Amino acid sequence: MIWLLLVGVGIEITGIVWDTLYHERFGYDELYMIPPAHYMDLVGAPFLFIMSILLLRGKKAPAWPLYFIIAGTLIQTVGWVWDNVGYHLRGIEPSPLAPPHIALNIGLLFMVVFSITAIIANAIKQARAKSSSKLSA
Question: Which keywords fit this entry according to its UniProt record (predicted)?
Fold first, then answer.
């Protein structure tokens, strides 16, 4: 089940790439109040949040990276709301270094780095469990 973290990260990265390409091609498109690419973030972050909670409850992975993933999802959700409600609904496209974009990127960084960390930590935990069972047999 821990591999589902990679699915969430894939959704997030796809959304970021699509959003970057969308804004480079169309700038701020007045056809959509909120650019379509922004909805990928709205899918990816809650997916990672739910997966982290399920992994914590099932004790299927080390807990500490999952807490950072949850923090990343919350930071990115704040950035998403701030960007879309504070700017896009008013017809403003903020610069890439605007505070909501920084929050989006920090949240994404947390989710990517700590998803990979959780997968590696889980692999180490399983390897140690296998080696200790071989020693006791």
Answer: Membrane, Transmembrane, Transmembrane helix
